[in-house]
Amino acid sequence: MKKWITFLATFWASSLHASGLLQWPEIKSHTLTSTVLEEQRRVWVSLPGNYHNNPDAQYPVIYFTDGSYLIKNIQGAMWALNTRADVPEAILIAIENPDNTRARDLTPTVYTNEFSPPGAVTGQSAHFERFIVEELVPWVNANYRTDGFEVIAGHSLGGLFVVSSLISPAANSVFEGYVAMDPSLWWDNQVMIERVTTAATNIPSNQHMVYISAAWEENIPPEFMDLYISHIGGIDTVSKVIEAQYPLNSTYQIETTESHRSIVYSSLYNGIRAVFQCYPKICVK
């Protein structure tokens, strides 16, 4: 029961916000004034260890939502992958999604259910996407040595945003890699199933790498069973549509030993490795 209360809370508000991020010397905080969002938004930047020692080198960029709690996890995944030489060094851009705007930023439609907090604002992910594509990415490219290979990653509602970005012409013209970790594809009665199916023919051929993971859990409390079935069913259906219909490379991984929250660790490692497997190119099947 306790695990599923936590499971639900994760969809609406990230309670894992890391504290003292600036104690990590390789992480720097920046506050951007967004015209699109009409507010300020904080991002954290983590540069590769050799960035300043190689002034001519350019690097891929990994952007990820819920940056305040994922930044240290993704740094750990990158350290492990780099020690194995599985992926190139990369610039990490952690985007803040505060509790009071998280559902607004990361969901594609206006929707609430019995688990929604009072007054929840939803359905404005198109604005958040515009902020990333039109303001954040150009800012990163202007201030850091980037090589044009961009990845977008997210967990839970952030994973929902990643899938939504995949079928958005504005976003999929920018990002080559997509990492969706146990995405909340139950959202709005599985609205993304129809959207992904409809958009299949609009994705440019052989220009993207996609990784989607799902946490297969047992012993679900009866009162949460309908939500869980919608959640895991939405992930399974959307992932199989992508595998079967989309002209791009995809990896769909079901984790039977992880929970919605713990899957972050394995999925960051496996997802980053999957989308970089043919870097700097896109694998052609």
UniProtKB/TrEMBL annotation:
GO terms for molecular function: hydrolase activity, acting on ester bonds. The keyword Signal applies. Residues 1-18 form the signal peptide. Keywords: Hydrolase, Signal. InterPro entries: AB_hydrolase_fold (IPR029058), Esterase-like (IPR000801), Siderophore_Hydrolase_D (IPR052558). Belongs to the esterase D family. This is Putative alpha/beta-Hydrolase. It comes from Vibrio nigripulchritudo.
